[in-house]
């Protein structure tokens, strides 16, 4: 639940010269931006760099925000374009669970805590690998709903459809994700459930 002044009120103050107010928007949306950036790159440092870049770009473009949609919707667009530009520049390699180093690290850790961390990362990695097998549109709607925690109404605005269509698209994307998980990651899914 959002407390304090609304986004539009903060933006108005920033544009009137109270630049320090921008910190309220950064605090309010830093997890949102970081979560989306992390969807594009598995490297936390890269995601943090992208998030910082996003907030700088958003600050510089704040006068362009017309308030026709929620600030988070406008910010989402900046995040995705910044992520895509970042990845094109860096040509970041995608690491797979097939990489033997992952298992060597897991084998060399004695504590149950470390093993649990590797298991959690494995689950996230399997999910991310499955998401990469989906179409861009399917992966985007699943990311928006589950990781960026956007409402169906907001997702509709972002992708340009009404909320009911967004709900249908989300349902179909979940079905396709389930099919990809069962087809390509059946062993991993059994290990997660079992």
UniProtKB/TrEMBL annotation:
Q: Name one GO biological process term.
A: DNA-templated transcription initiation
Task: Return the NCBIfam families for the record.
Answer: sigma70-ECF
Which parts of the sequence belong to the RNA polymerase sigma-70 region domain?
25-91
Q: Which family does it belong to?
A: Belongs to the sigma-70 factor family. ECF subfamily.
Q: What is an example of a Pfam family matching this protein?
A: Sigma70_r2
Cited Gene3D superfamilies? 1.10.1740.10, Winged helix-like DNA-binding domain superfamily/Winged helix DNA-binding domain
Q: Keywords assigned by UniProt? A: DNA-binding, Sigma factor, Transcription, Transcription regulation
Q: Where is the RNA polymerase sigma factor 70 region 4 type domain?
A: 127-177
Q: Does the keyword Transcription regulation apply?
A: yes
Species assigned in the record: Niastella vici
User: Which domain of life does this protein belong to?
Assistant: Bacteria
Q: Name one GO molecular function term.
A: DNA binding
Q: What is this protein called?
A: RNA polymerase sigma factor
What SUPFAM superfamilies is this protein classified in?
Sigma2 domain of RNA polymerase sigma factors, Sigma3 and sigma4 domains of RNA polymerase sigma factors
